[in-house]
Amino acid sequence: MTFKISKMTTALSMAIFWGIVLFSGVVFAETSETVKAIENIATEEAISSSATTTAGAMDLADTLSSQLGITKDQAAGGAGALFNMAKDKLSGDDYAQLANAIPGIGELIEAAPAVSTATAETTDKVTGVTQGLGSLTKTIEGAKKYADVYDQFKQLGLDTDMVSQFVPKILSFSESAGGETVMNILKSVWH
Predict the structure, then answer these.
(1) Phi and psi (nearest 5°) for 35?
(2) Are the beta carbons of 53 and 103 closer than 8 angstroms?
(3) What's the rounded Cα separation, in Å, for the pair 143 and 59?
(4) Mean pLDDT score across all residues of the chain
(5) How far apart (Å, rounded) are the C-alpha atoms in residues 72 and 60?
(6) Of 167, 56, 51, which is closest to residue 101 (Cα–Cα)?
(7) First CA to last CA distance, the chain
(8) Is the pLDDT higher at 97 or at 14?
(9) Is the CB of residue 64 less than 8 Å from the CB of residue 70?
(10) Which of 23, 28, 92, 169 is a good FRET partner for 75, with 20 to 30 A between their CA atoms?
(11) Is there a contact between 123 and 148 (Cβ–Cβ < 8 Å)?
């Protein structure tokens, strides 16, 4: 009898062993499939997030390019020059609200050419001269406010009067993207 028990015990042990092996394989396969599915979802979300970040800025550049009859590079650089001006003048909170409304705004700012040294030096000199000029200071400050942007537009091969064509289109786009609050944030800088 012990022999029969031993054979049964061995058969039962083998059945349990193979059952565990098969079950482990199924669990591992399911776990592996779950891990792969999670990785795929995470990758798709990262790609989607990246596309969304760029989409806001690229949509604006496409809109400006088609509506103003300029290249996409000129559109991106011109918008970037204006957004850089806004970034310099806005509080951190206001700029964050703007950047959230128009994802990829940093890419537009990077597309803008650097302000030429001559313009930067002239702007610094004008700032020193305006002290003590009373009511003329406001007029000079208004002209100086756009000096860097005008310089960047010229470097992009755009006439400086194109600035006045960019501003309302960007304001309209910003209102669509972030509402009236975001549009008013930009208006506070540009008007």
Answers:
(1) -60, -45
(2) yes
(3) 30
(4) 76
(5) 10
(6) 56
(7) 102
(8) 97
(9) yes
(10) 92
(11) yes
Mean pLDDT of 18-34: 49
Res. 16 pLDDT band, cuts 50 70 90: low
Dihedral sign of CA atoms 166, 168, 172, 178 in order: positive
User: Which amino acid makes up residue 160?
Assistant: T
The alpha carbon of residue 75 and the mean position of all alpha carbons in its chain are separated, in whole angstroms, by 16
Q: Give how far Cα 185 sits from Cα of 67, 94, 154, 191, Å.
A: 23, 7, 26, 10
- Give pLDDT tens digits for 86-102: 999 999 999 999 999 99
Judged on CB neighbours under 10 Å (0-12, 13-18, 19+), 114 is exposed
How would residue 180 be classed by pLDDT, with cut points 50, 70 and 90?
very high
Tell me what pLDDT residue 56 has.
Answer: 83
Q: Are 72 and 65 in contact (CB under 8 A)?
A: yes
Residues 6 or more apart whose CB falls under 8 angstroms from that of 64 comprise 70, 75, 78, 79, 166, 169, 170
Burial tier of 30 (Cβ tally within 10 Å: 0-12, 13-18, 19+): exposed
Tokens of 123: 């702007």
Distance in angstroms (rounded) separating the CA atoms of residues 187 and 19? 71
The CA-CA-CA angle for residues 140, 141, 146, to 5°, reads: 105
Tokens 């208006």 found at: 187
